[in-house]
Write a structure and sequence with these properties.
Strand content: 15-25%
Shape: globular
Order of helices and strands: EEEEHHHE
Structural class: alpha+beta
Largest sheet: 3 strands, antiparallel
Helix content: 40-55%
Distance between the termini: 21 Å
Number of strands: 5
Oligomer: single chain
Number of domains: 1
């Protein structure tokens, strides 16, 4: 999975896709995930960092990350595989 190259992101979480003209607002955790992935940080490292920083259980995080990347894919902000975690592992 990679983030489309021309995607613009503001400091306050506004994502702009210049190809489609669409804009999206994401929360601070979404920004952390998005920026980390843009910087080629492995999704396992991103997940571990979030589990340490925030009061969230592993299964909820797995679902939320999968939903986040699926939404990003539907909105043509990323390309490639979007599912990373099995909820049962």
């Amino acid at each position: 999975m990679k983030i489309i190259r021309d995607i613009a992101v503001s400091e306050n979480g506004l994502i702009f896709n210049p190809i489609t003209g669409d804009s999206f607002k994401i929360n601070p955790i979404g920004m952390e995930i998005f920026n980390s992935k843009r910087n080629n940080i492995d999704i396992i490292e991103i997940k571990e960092s979030i589990l340490v920083k925030y009061d969230i259980d592993k299964n909820t995080l797995d679902v939320d990350i999968n939903d986040f990347f699926n939404s990003m894919s539907r909105n043509r902000l990323i390309e490639g595989e979007t599912r990373y975690f099995d909820i049962d592992d």
